[in-house]
Amino acid sequence: MYSQAIAYSILELAVVSKGDPVSTTFANSLALAQAAEAAGYKRFWLAEHHNTASVGSNSPPVLIGHIAGGTKTLRVGSGGVMLPNHSPLVVAEQFGTLGNLYPNRIDLGLGRAPGTDQVTAQAIRSDFMQAAHSFPREIEKIQQYFSPDNQHAAVRAPVAEGVDVPLYILGSSTDSAHLAAKKGLPYAFASHFATAQLFNALEIYHREFKPSVQLEKPYTIAGVNIVVADTDEEAERLYTSILRMFIGLVTGNRDFLQPPTDMTDELRGALRHPTISQMLKFSFVGSKETVKAQVEEFLQQTGVDELIAATAIYNHEDRFKSYALFAEIMQEINATAKPEAAGVHQVG
Length: 348
Description:
alpha/beta; TIM Barrel; eight-stranded parallel beta barrel
């Protein structure tokens, strides 16, 4: 039995399947968000990636408006804005605008990585490395722009002042854990692809956490890859699209998401590759029964407050079904939470 209900959310990369126009991908993202809202998902975050054919989520603020405008209660946000790519003032203005358009529904997740390779990062912003080193100070600037006390400053974002847009620190290493704890902000770890430092990062964050105006006690979110189908065999088949996408990332072949195939000996061999196996360590693949057991073990090991699920399934209908089954899994898990604690420690 869990001491509290575990929130469950979606991290959307707007993955572009081979043969689909990007416009179809964006329409499918909205349809997924609407289904997620009905299925009890807490939030729907849009990632920021660049120069990758298979990922359509390049501009989180634009897609957030698209998703929030087509839903009613679902929290929508960035997972995240890669801050070194952007001006803190412009980010505050963008999310202040979104916060005014969709009150109490917008999240601002901030990361330090470029969301791409170094060559592309330089094309986005020539002083990227300097901006990355300034990440803590850039967060403070955003907090300042959102503060109602900034009204008399020389540089302002009036559209953001006093608007309730909670900040989240995203990370894939222990560096981000120290920062999130120091600033007293919720912490989302990218364990859907960066698994090595998850447990150390969570321990550091809890140990060093300092309460803030936004957050009284630690709040953690962990990313996982989810593929749920009627049978283990069908889920494994759908998973081959994700596996081939990660093989492409490792080999530099950034193609569109490929149709699923049978799990060949070659693909099974790739799963044993040290880099790929490490990246996909927290991929939960199988029937409802299989994935539920995997999720319960992960929750017991990590103690996180929330799971944010990512998946790259070729067919839209199969992806819908996977997320619907995952929602059922989380509802079954949450049914075992202590009644007096269910829903406690909600953030955003």
